[in-house]
Amino acid sequence: xxxxxxxxxxxxxxxxxxxxxxxxxxxxxxxxxxxxxxxxxxxxxxxxxxxxxxxxxxxxxxxxxxxxxxxxxxxxxxxxxxxxxxxxxxxxxxxxxxxxxxxxxxxxxxxxxxxxxxxxxxxxxxxxxxxxxxxxxxxxxxxxxxxxxxxxxxxxxxxxxxxxxxxxxxxxxxxxxxxxxxxxxxxxxxxxxxxxxxxxxxxxxxxxxxxxxxxxxxxxxxxxxxxxxxxxxxxxxxxxxxxxxxxxxxxxxxxxxxxxxxxxxxxxxxxxxxxxxxxxxxxxxxxxxxxxxxxxxxxxxxxxxxxxxxxxxxxxxxxxxxxxxxxxxxxxxxxxxxxxxxxxxxxxxxxxxxxxxxxxxxxxxxxxxxxxxxxxxxxxxxxxxxxxxxxxxxxxxxxxxxxxxxxxxxxxxxxxxxxxxxxxxxxxxxxxxxx
Length: 435
Ligand SMILES: NC(=O)c1ccc[n+]([C@@H]2O[C@H](COP(=O)([O-])OP(=O)(O)OC[C@H]3O[C@@H](n4cnc5c(N)ncnc54)[C@H](O)[C@@H]3O)[C@@H](O)[C@H]2O)c1
Hints:
By secondary structure, the chain is of the alpha/beta class. It is 35% helix and 19% strand. Bound molecules: nicotinamide-adenine-dinucleotide.
């Protein structure tokens, strides 16, 4: 047994490390589906600018995302989309046309399309000043301090104090630009602007249930084990397969699970990250059902089929993550396990039908929890709007779960995984060449 003075300092250290790894959370019973939510009352218009007229903003067959739909349900007739910014003017005009043919016409009938934010600002009348700017442009155009790729800085300059919603990942430039993302983050926090980043899995009821049990039982996370297996047959965007364009599947896609891992495990000791990969040119990396012509992508930019990483959290806990480009069909196979003394939380299929298995002290059996009608995309937008509107009835009800700074750290982790795996490939090739 440690002497009392040692135990006291251990306890302080433990509390500090717990505080460092604590993340904001929401009571899961407050995460209500869209059809049970009431429109925010009020007669004033709520002006919004959308940046990007693509799938995340207006939906597609690829998945349940569609921010405009959630804004419409949250704000009802108050929603006024004052501008849609997209260099693909025709695409923007086409989505607006479709909206104007439906019962949500009032939100879009006066929406103007511009190629750039600057063009909008030049042509804007004071009544069109937005209360929120929602950014769903490709990540290569944001998260830096460089002109044309600095939308966050532009927004803050043109509309000081306006709330922002930024899609994940916060950037996909070269790893050398990571510092710029942190500069953008500092500028956002210095400005005091409300900013939420689109790591919507944090808003899953299942995720908040895990958080609740950890908090109520004062648990310390010992390990996170995450697996993200993509159904590659369904991915037909050539850019996704090109590391030079998308930054690779861990940075672009696995980011959701790296983020969830951090949400539970806390800060990562970045220097501890190690990783291995199975590359496209290795025998085991051959894929038989690719929908794209990979020969058109430069060999050095083709993506790995498997990337597997481990790391230490600053708390001492251990994290691991495996991303696979291996499955066919349509649905992904994704699981996250979180361990604490006596507890195992296993989240299965968070994208489609989340199931949470919980094993607790005193039992060898898994409880099974299902969450029908859960809509994390709605919950993230709903919480953002409530924070903007500063609803004070219950100070705990509205919370942003993913800040820009937190998202920068997730971006940093995903780059550390990619870099470590590439170094491991190089070391392996050097060993083979020397043998
Ligand atoms: N959270 C999720 O589950 C989820 C799901 C889908 C997409 N996303 C993210 O949303 C972002 C956009 O993805 P998407 O699927 O909508 O892509 P998309 O290609 O369907 O749409 C992107 C749109 O942005 C436009 N654009 C290009 N450059 C622009 C610029 N400088 N300013 C404004 N618009 C510009 C394009 O013309 C296009 O219309 C990505 O970061 C992606 O990772 C997140």
